[in-house]
Amino acid sequence: MFYIRNHFPYPVVDIRTWELSIEGCVNRRIKFQYHDLLQMPQVSLPVTLECVGNKRALFHPKVRGEQWELGAISHAVWTGVRLMDLLYSAGIQMHAREVIFEGMDKGGRTDRPGVFSYARSLPLDQSLNPHTLVALYMYGKPLPFRHGYPARLIVPGWFGMASVKWLHRLVVTEEPFQGPFQVVDYVYNRNPLVPSESPEPVTTIRLDSTIARPTDQEALAKGDHWVVGTAISGEDPVVLVEISTDNGTTWLPVSWLDPQEPYSWRRWCWKWTVTSSGTYDVKVRATDAAGHIQPERADWNEKGYGYNAIQHIRVYVD
Amino acid sequence: MFYIRNHFPYPVVDIRTWELSIEGCVNRRIKFQYHDLLQMPQVSLPVTLECVGNKRALFHPKVRGEQWELGAISHAVWTGVRLMDLLYSAGIQMHAREVIFEGMDKGGRTDRPGVFSYARSLPLDQSLNPHTLVALYMYGKPLPFRHGYPARLIVPGWFGMASVKWLHRLVVTEEPFQGPFQVVDYVYNRNPLVPSESPEPVTTIRLDSTIARPTDQEALAKGDHWVVGTAISGEDPVVLVEISTDNGTTWLPVSWLDPQEPYSWRRWCWKWTVTSSGTYDVKVRATDAAGHIQPERADWNEKGYGYNAIQHIRVYVD
């Protein structure tokens, strides 16, 4: 059930010849074969991945792209080697600023001629973060092919585009990467008519919360119902989730099903005792440790990224 | 991938004790065991089933219920015994008017107390139609449990609610059936404020056509693209499907991928050569043999049934 979003057709992977190479501003180019990585120290980390296009279908005016509703977010425990261990073994040079991560998937784009690999860069500090992994396992099993076998970058707390699948090449650079998936896609462009000189890049997961059940337009009987859902933030942890059943007039805190974990969504539940029939406008909002709260309206942008407005569903009690 | 829509939890089925009984206005009550049915003459028929709530999410104002988009329609070849053979072996009495079909699935409703089986009735003439089957096989294999094993009624040309799953009881009656899935659900109620005395019941599949690819808000490159989709009608066969890429100003006919078959959708394709970039409003409309054409606007009703307005998607060519 883990969501999948690719830009290109699935690549052909031959594990016998697959290598992960590190080049660029390093003291020595290195190539790791699959069994090299399997023999290195492994780290396991629960990380929730969310596509930055999740909830795109909720933007008004409508925005082009995959019309995701609530489903482009999933959770797994990832196991692999620390990216920093790989980079240090290559030796990072003084003037290095970024690391480019290239996947094996490639193809054309609608907006320009040529063939492109799916490639993204990360600042050096995030690349050296001990929690940034080159994952080889998902929930204890070798990565499923569709999720990036044999190796997938996992950048905890960042939107999913950073976690490059079918990883095969790392390039340490001193110049900001200018690939189309870095500077054309995955930037917040709030005014299509006036393209920004230096648009804000998409980085960490925005504070958001979602009701999984009941669903919008669902009919319920009077009595007790469990409202359940998730909340997440890529920066300051979620400390409070509140539910309103009167369209935002009054709010009540939920109970947690998950502990507060960095990089993971927190599932929550709330017991709703409905005694009178009618139409209910149910809302949910999350607050993080820095006191940020979800916005009433989404931050509209040309590509429909980062929708995190307070969710509103309508349910009917007969 | 065949869509599933149930009203109640899955029933418990023990094939060793399962029976299909026929009672009511018949000369002799009969019970068929599974192997009895297997030994009777089998008929195979390709039938497309569509939930009458398909496309409900497209209604404005929004309507309560499952927020189906385009996916609540699927096609299969069904094999089983003719319902008429079963009914004739029981002997239908002169005054019989309807047959009630009861599934094994049961449970509560939000709008009234009590436990109800999922049950629907059909007029006698439709019950005696040689194409109305008690299906035992789906694509040549015993019915999957989720699709009604061991036996499912298949009513060709009717919306899916008529094709009762986990069928175990037939009652031939002289009075119109008043079960909640006959008179409360599955009626077109166009004015919630003024409930009709005798609302129009949901019966056959409405004339409709759907674009499967490209998807709404998709971006394409200049060049050739195949637009593909389906068209269906439960009554007069679909004879024409037309595409417009200029928001309905001009229309061009598609090519057929399927022959004209009663009870089956017709898949079609249309080669679109796009030479100039821009935003395209693409529409599709079907015409049936009686000259009916899909409406511009959907026939709004309280439960969101039978949406068949001309589909409109927007695609971007870079």
Automatic annotation (TrEMBL), chains A, B:
Keywords: Metal-binding, Molybdenum, Oxidoreductase. Its cofactor is Mo-molybdopterin. PANTHER family: SULFITE OXIDASE, MITOCHONDRIAL, SULFITE REDUCTASE. This is Sulfite oxidase. It comes from Paenibacillus sedimenti. It comes from the Bacteria. Residues 204-315 form the Moybdenum cofactor oxidoreductase dimerisation domain. Signal peptide: none annotated. GO terms for molecular function: heme binding; molybdenum ion binding; molybdopterin cofactor binding; sulfite oxidase activity. Residues 7-180 form the Oxidoreductase molybdopterin-binding domain. One of its GO terms (biological process) is sulfur compound metabolic process. InterPro entries: Ig_E-set (IPR014756), MoCF_OxRdtse_dimer (IPR005066), Mopterin_OxRdtase_euk (IPR008335), OxRdtase_Mopterin-bd_dom (IPR000572), OxRdtase_Mopterin-bd_sf (IPR036374).
